[in-house]
Amino acid sequence: xxxxxxxxxxxxxxxxxxxxxxxxxxxxxxxxxxxxxxxxxxxxxxxxxxxxxxxxxxxxxxxxxxxxxxxxxxxxxxxxxxxxxxxxxxxxxxxxxxxxxxxxxxxxxxxxxxxxxxxxxxxxxxxxxxxxxxxxxxxxxxxxxxxxxxxxxxxxxxxxxxxxxxxxxxxxxxxxxxxxxxxxxxxxxxxxxxxxxxxxxxxxxxx
Length: 207
Known about the structure:
The protein has helices spanning 18-22, 103-114, 117-120, 187-193; strands at 2-7, 28-35, 41-48, 54-56, 59-60, 63-70, 76-80, 84-88, 92-97, 100-102, 127-132, 135-139, 142-145, 148-154, 157-164, 167-174, 177-185, 204-206. It is mainly β. The longest helix has 12 residues, at 103-114.
């Protein structure tokens, strides 16, 4: 026993749904279902999301296949396009692999989640982001390629670490002070970051 709700057109009810409005889900179709012996509500669907979190080279990915579940405490667990997992609870945790990351859109998405009403009077929501074998899209034909990315937004301080081959970089933003360092990045890294340029036999260090 249980129930199922199929919504073939989200926009028809989006304005009357706190959940859909809260996470800016307004275009696509979604199915919600729950069995009587289960503790959470499951969902799946296809949406054209307002935040273009992923890219294929320099082309934003417009449609997202999602599935996940919602707990009684309104914690949400979402899988997107089988490559990204998002957990929205006391903290926001994002894990992805083999993906192109639209940095500007990701930051807007994080800002939207962390500014929700339930967190305004509490401690700041912490954000933990991890990506494996992925790249950050930073502009036309410009990419920051990586083997591993770790980013943390903790108690108002942003720190991040990135590695590619033997190269390592990191940055910290605290009290409007920005610190950036990096070393030992190879030709491939530089060619992706500086479009239409060719590098041979050098390395990139910065601080």
